[in-house]
Amino acid sequence: MKFYNRQHELSELKRIQNLSFNDSSRLTVITGRRRIGKTSLIIKSTANTPTIYLFVGRKNEATLCSEFIPIIAQVLNTFVPPEIQTFRSLFQYLMELASNRSFNLIIDEFQEFYTINESIYSDMQYLWDIYRKKSNMNLIVSGSVYSLMQKIFQDRREPLFGRADNIIKLSPFDINTLKEIMHDYNPTYINDDLLALFSFTGGVPKYVELFCDNDMLTVDKMIAFMVRENSSFTDEGKNLLIEEFGKNYATYFSILSAISGGINTQSEIEAALGNKSIGGQIKRLVEDYNLIVRQRPILAKEGGQTVRYEILDNFLRFWFNYFDRHRSMIEIKNFTALQTIIKADYPIYSGFMLERYFKQQFAESFQYRNIGSWWESKGHQNEIDIVALKLEKNQAVAVEVKRQRKNFKPDLFAAKVEHLRHKLLPKYQIETQCLSLEDM
């Protein structure tokens, strides 16, 4: 698959590179979940300039240095003492080289130094403070363990706190990019195919690339490609998260599985987990891991008790709902049965994802100051899928989302909107819409 999107990030990285080469060294941190395209972006942004790329694998520090030395020597066409066995010495040598020449230094999976030698971070901080102003290194570090990268650069107690000149968090492809990709790789696509790509991948570039490169861009083809023997999707959720959670991952997985299945209040989740107290884990999933989000009715007060939890990542929501929940089928390789379950569920599952799609589409239009849903704490009869407050004062849009427009009941929805107006938006002019597959 060709390189898509990321023009803003590429422009920013080029700007930083120019400053690094012509003024003084800069440190840029690039974060984002695995498969989001961090390495591809960095490599593209540094093309045609001297670039050292170092991947931090889980190896002995001396072994890593012995692997890094020939890479540095070749890229910079310089001698690097082969007896260097610590990253501190190697980084100091690089900073001294950068005092006389300009180059990019990329350190990928930067958080892995925690398991190799945690003191590397304080060593780098010390050397960076000494050499930064008198050198011309464009230092870019990236990492995909979100909680650790946050800790390294945004925890006041950490040595590299405050040292990053720029922190760029990569997001999945936006909706217009997904449409462009579908047009390029499957020009005859229907909107249900686009919705499936959005629902299954969430716009994560690696997953999109797998579907494109294997010509799997219809609903049925995507499901068949994901659910088969030796599929890279089968263990993907576990591989993504087990490093984040460590040995206590089982409770976190149970919480995420419950939320993916529609059990989305804390009391309901605790009941599903055998009345286990999970307040601490929920807080960490929101604040430390950035995996779930607290959803309150639009305009509800921040401390309000009416809270639902949602998994932010579309792929993980899908993975927990089907791959994790039906693990026994995967173990006995009954992929046909799992495909049948997913295809049978798809109309309902994709209906929820269509609501998420339109919320994202609203957000990407930049025409609204607040976008959410509305419901009352007791009962669901007055729930409204999307309520969006426009930038213009006292202007709002209320939306019912239906896969098929024929299922829309205008009178019932009008009564809900009138109730919303009375309860929450008495001074607003409220435009009403029904959005369906046709409107994607």
Total domain units: 3
For the sheet with most strands, the description reads: 5 strands, parallel
Quickly give the CATH architecture of the largest domain.
Answer: 3-Layer(aba) Sandwich
CATH superfamily of the largest domain: P-loop containing nucleotide triphosphate hydrolases
What's the order of the H and E elements? HEHEHHEHHEHEHHHHHHHHEEHHHEEEHE
What level of helicity do the residues show?
A: 40-55%
Approximately how much beta-strand content do the residues carry?
5-15%
Total number of beta strands: 11
How far the N terminus sits from the C terminus, by CA atoms, comes to 23 Å
Major sheet: arrangement of strands: 2-3-4-1-5
Class inferred from helices and paired strands? alpha/beta
Structure annotation, total helices: 19
Rg from alpha-carbon coordinates: 25 Å
Shape by Cα distribution: globular
Uncertain runs with pLDDT below 50, 5 residues or more? none
Oligomer: single chain
- Average pLDDT rating: 95
Structure description:
The protein has 440 residues and is α/β, with parallel strands linked by helices. It folds into three domains: 7-169, P-loop containing nucleotide triphosphate hydrolases (Rossmann fold), CATH 3.40.50; 236-332, Arc Repressor Mutant, subunit A (Orthogonal Bundle); 366-439, Trna Endonuclease, Chain: A, domain 1 (3-Layer(aba) Sandwich), CATH 3.40.1350. It is built from 19 helices and eleven strands. Strands 2-3-4-1-5 form a five-stranded parallel beta sheet. Strands 8-9-10-11 form a four-stranded mixed beta sheet, with helices on both faces. Helix 13 crosses helix 16. The radius of gyration is 25 Å and the shape is globular. It starts with 6 loop residues before the first helix and ends in a 5-residue tail after the last strand. 35% of the residues are buried. The mean pLDDT is 95.
